[in-house]
Amino acid sequence: MAEFNEVSGEYVVIKALENGVTIIGLTRGRDTKFHHSEKLDKGEVMIAQFTQHTSAIKIRGRAEIMSKHGTVRTDE
């Protein structure tokens, strides 16, 4: 059961409001590094999760981000 708890972090839903939205996962630990990136086109949706490896998610471009805390849009 310990393995499940390590990756059962919070989810966020990211919806691209324009073509070319970039989503970048950042690592945990002493040094924060990029570990994964994705590009979304307008209307595409990605579900991302905070895990033992991912401590932050950076989003470039116009997008709507939905989580249990509410909905946020990037500036236009």
Report on this model:
The chain is mainly beta and 76 residues long. It has one domain (2-73): Sandwich (Immunoglobulin-like), CATH 2.60.40.50. 7% of the residues lie in helices and 54% in strands. It is built from 1 helix and 7 strands. It has one helix at 2-6; strands at 11-16, 21-27, 34-40, 45-49, 54-60, 63-67, 70-73. The longest helix has 5 residues, at 2-6. GO terms for molecular function: RNA binding. Oligomer of 11 identical subunits arranged in doughnut-like structure. Keywords: RNA-binding, Transcription, Transcription regulation. It holds the Pfam family TrpBP.
Average of the residue pLDDT scores = 85
Largest sheet: 4 strands, antiparallel
Beta-strand residue percentage: over 45%
Beta strands, count: 7
- Unreliable segments of 5+ consecutive residues: 1-5
What is the class in the CATH system? Mainly Beta
Tell me the helix content: under 10%
Structural class based on helices, strands and sheet pairing: mainly beta
Instruction: Name the CATH architecture.
Output: Sandwich
What is the first-to-last residue Cα distance?
A: 43 Å
What order do the strands of the largest sheet run in, or round the barrel if closed? 4-1-6-7
Query: What is the element string, with H for helices and E for strands?
Result: HEEEEEEE
According to CATH, the fold-level topology is Immunoglobulin-like
Number of domains: 1
Number of helices: 1
Q: CATH homologous superfamily?
A: TRAP-like
**What Rg do the Cα atoms give?**
13 Å
The gross shape turns out to be globular
How would you classify the quaternary structure? single chain
